[in-house]
Amino acid sequence: MAHSNGDENLLSGEATVGGDSDEEIEVTAAEVLARLEEAWINEKFAPELLESKADLVECMLDQIKEMARNLKNVKQGDVVASLHKLEIDRIRYILSSYTRTRIEKIEKHVVHVLEQEAERDENENSRLSPEELQYSKDYADSMESLMKSLALQHMPTNMQSIDRKKAVPRPNIDKYVFLKVLENQEQVMIDPEEDPIDMETGAQHIMRYSAIAPLLSNGSVALL
Hints:
The chain is α+β, with helices and mostly antiparallel strands. 47% of the residues lie in helices and 14% in strands.
């Protein structure tokens, strides 16, 4: 949990978040917010559901609770208090938008999302938090029940079953995205018919999402 020291910068202290191998990493609350903002932007512009950052969300929820408590010790009407309230509202907006974006993707491609989860290698991180996985299953079941009650029961017996794997809506991973390179990359294959290219840190590109998806996953690039 992040802790604030009650001074002018309420977004301070350290936070503990999960690492890539279930290890906990100590980072500052400001770093957690920066990671969450990056995850939010990536999620907004990626055509597919990305790996869940539920640890960052939980950490920032704890942080804004702490900020709100510390805010009570700040003189009301003070300019600093107003700025702190604006910062809390900004963080809440990011959290809300990030969560809403993921829910919209899950609902739009729920069968595809569940297929990915079922086919996931045991050593591969899940794209869904436990809560999102349960929501996905419940949503898929609800949609199937709704379809049966509204339409299928009125159709011939041989047409009353649903094959979820037929005509499954899938994200367009060949969509072009705007990105910034965070780490130098050499010999990146962008198009099978073209030569690989080198990508320098700080450079910005417009490329097919499918070509840079692995780089986004490992944090080498960020979407803009």
